[in-house]
Design goal:
heterodimer; A: mainly alpha; 0% strand; B: alpha/beta; Rossmann fold; GMP Synthetase, Chain A, domain 3; 9-stranded mixed beta sheet; 18 helices; 33% helix
């Protein structure tokens, strides 16, 4: 199982690639809605991408109330 | 036309429907690409009856309140039916609220019973204030084996054998208490009768009928007034089928249109925009010749559907577009918030009718709807048969506050006669929305008189409900406003909340304060956050009891500062 830091790094890489923003513009504690300029549906799209990458399934409610990359990575980590 | 006159209650109307179409499919529940549940009306009845019997045994009586906090799924509808069957009052709560907010509304509603999904129950039972939960019986769905349910019962095991008895209710009895807002401030529980729902259902289905074979994709939360009506009551009393998705990822929603050949779907503007983005991206990828052809076909379709939709013709002209929606879509129903006319026009031009309407929780569901004769993207349609609208104190352009009178208005706000008296005046519901009628009897909306915003996701956010997150902020005083309330615009777009700040004498706004504002803002759910702040140089006007005079302050700021002074965060 990868460490949380590695998961977080992969989340940031994927988010940057998915929404075509430079990776260095994203920080772990960023509000991804704000930094990426996305709405909650686009965030769900990202979640699907992350599920494929990590080969897990995350119910929608796992994302409820989550708005920063670090917490998102923690939710993913708990299912790895 | 649907005739519900013979039924006095939702329980009676739904029970008759279960017997009338035993072999029609009423409910499909899918999780991603896996179908989890498929029920006929007869199956639904068989699943609901043991729950009804168990509720009877638990002394659930006529008029007792039962709250549901669940995502859209079959157990939501089965539970709601059982509550109505037993003569109860349903309190549908928004599953997206926090556990603390759930506890607050449960206390306000005085619900005796609570039916809740396990993951939500876990959060509620861990929240501060749980010990004060007043519900006597809690049923939890889908709880994993062996977990401590903190005194709750498993929904799946809460069943008794035997024949339950339908409890008769009168039309004027309360069917539902629906909260339109008020989690942080004053709870607004709209008390709606069986008559309101049955009459509204008759009116809506007169324009957009359901029948056996119709498949309605239920994406909006069922606790929301729109989905409760068009994703439960409407299709069920007409023998149609409701499709639930356990995940609302855009890719699975798109798949569901095709897999289940959806007939109708209700969407909030955010979802409609997401679909538009997807289509536009696909169109942009087409090679130039194909794109040219597509544009020509769209132009022809526009010409042919100028006066009214011609779905069959559009499907032949633009088969790929219609196939993406499953090929049988008859209308996209849009409501709950301001929808960009350009987005609606985009879909209509592709031959997909968009039924845009206007409604309030206080008025059951909808009061106006586009009848598509012809389609008008710039209006929210005409008054539905049975609702009467008027414009109060119109200005020279005919714009004034919209008031509604109808059998489907709420009877009152729960336990709040003062607010009820302010909202329903001589039988007219004063909406707080600004509008006018055009020459063809269509209602056009032009912003709000009230201090609130409606998000693109259809959520009503009142500043008073979120203000407490800034309690103790290191400034002299602050107040949250809707930007369009401070600087009225004749549009429902560009809505945001702003924090107005009065600094201490000699205080400057610095990075630390800014970071503090950002950090506190992030404690709010993403759709409730402020968009920016404005500095104000004078003390806030206050009442003798030191409450901020919001209207007075808003007028001062609106006149003394400009919208451009908002510092976005």
């Amino acid at each position: 199982m990868p460490a949380l830091d590695q998961t977080l790094d992969e989340v940031l890489n994927l988010a940057a690639a998915h929404f075509k923003v430079p990776r260095e513009k994203l920080a772990p504690d960023d509000d991804f809605f704000k930094t990426l300029g996305i709405d909650s549906l686009q965030a769900l799209d990202l979640l699907t991408r992350l599920e494929h990458h990590f080969r897990i399934e995350l119910p929608d409610y796992e994302l409820q109330g989550v708005s920063d990359f670090r917490t998102l990575a923690e939710r993913i980590q708990s299912r790895l | 036309m649907l005739d519900l006159h013979q039924y006095a209650s939702l329980g009676a109307a739904l029970t008759a429907a279960l017997d009338r179409w035993p072999n029609e499919t009423c409910l499909i529940e899918a999780d991603r690409d896996r179908e989890k549940v498929r029920l006929t009306y007869s199956d639904f009845k068989e699943m609901a009856r043991p729950l009804c019997r168990a509720l009877e045994d638990a002394d659930f009586k006529a008029g007792d309140r039962a709250a549901i906090i669940m995502t859209n799924q079959s157990k939501w509808l089965i539970s709601a039916y059982a509550i109505f069957f037993c003569g109860g009052v349903l309190v549908p709560l928004d599953y997206k609220l926090s556990a603390g907010e759930h506890l607050q509304l449960l206390a306000h509603s005085k619900a005796r019973f609570l039916i809740v999904e396990y993951y939500l129950w876990r959060a509620i039972s861990e929240a501060a204030g749980f010990s004060k939960l007043g519900a006597e019986i809690v049923l939890v769905t889908e709880a994993p084996a062996g977990v401590d349910l903190r005194g709750a019962y498993r929904w799946e095991e809460f069943r008794r054998k035997g024949d339950p008895t339908l409890v008769a209710r009168q039309r004027e009895d309360t069917a539902c208490i629906v909260y339109s807002s008020g989690t942080g401030g004053r709870a607004k529980g709209c008390v709606l009768t069986h008559d309101a729902y049955l009459e509204q259902c008759t009116a809506l289905t007169a324009w957009y009928p359901f029948w056996p074979g119709v498949r309605y994709l239920s994406i909006l939360p069922t606790n929301h007034a729109i989905d409760f009506m068009v994703g439960f009551i409407g299709p069920f009393v007409c023998g149609a089928c409701v499709v639930h998705l356990r995940t609302l990822r855009p890719e699975f929603v798109r798949d569901a249109f095709v897999r289940y050949r959806i007939t109708y779907v209700s969407l909030v503007p955010m979802v409609l925009k997401n679909l538009e983005r997807g289509f536009r991206a696909k169109f942009d990828e087409l090679p130039p010749k194909k794109r040219w052809l597509l544009d020509r076909l769209i132009r022809i379709n526009k010409m042919l559907t100028r006066k009214k939709p011609r779905v069959e013709v559009s499907r032949r002209l633009l088969p790929q577009v219609h196939k993406a929606f499953g090929g049988e879509l008859r209308a996209l129903i849009v409501g709950g918030a301001f929808t960009d006319p350009a987005t609606m026009q985009f879909f209509y031009d592709l031959g997909i009718p968009v039924a845009c309407g206007y409604g309030l929780t206080e008025a059951c569901t909808a009061v106006t709807l586009n009848d598509l004769k012809p389609f008008r993207a710039d209006t929210v349609g005409k008054p539905l048969p049975g609702s009467e609208l008027r414009i109060l104190s119109p200005d020279t352009e005919g714009i004034g506050e919209v008031a509604v009178r109808s059998r489907w208005l709420m009877s009152h706000y729960l336990d709040d006669p003062e607010l009820t008296a302010q909202t329903i005046v001589e039988g007219w519901l004063v909406t707080g929305d600004q509008g006018r009628f055009d020459g063809n009897g269509h209602l056009q909306l032009f912003g709000r008189k009230k201090n609130m915003i409606v998000t693109e996701g259809g959520k009503n956010i009142y500043p008073e409900d979120i203000e407490s997150v800034f309690d103790g902020l290191g400034v002299k005083e602050y107040c949250v406003f809707a930007a369009n309330y401070l600087w009225p615009q004749k549009t429902l777009g560009e809505e945001m909340l702003v924090l107005t700040i009065r600094l201490e004498q000699n205080q400057q706004i610095d990075d630390r304060l800014r970071e503090e504002i950002v950090a506190r803002n992030r404690r709010l759910a993403d759709f409730k956050r402020i968009g920016g702040y404005v500095l104000w140089g004078k003390d806030f006007p206050r009442t003798a009891s030191m409450k901020i005079k919001r209207a007075e302050l808003a007028a001062e700021i609106g006149g003394g500062a400009a919208r451009e002074q908002i510092v976005e965060i």
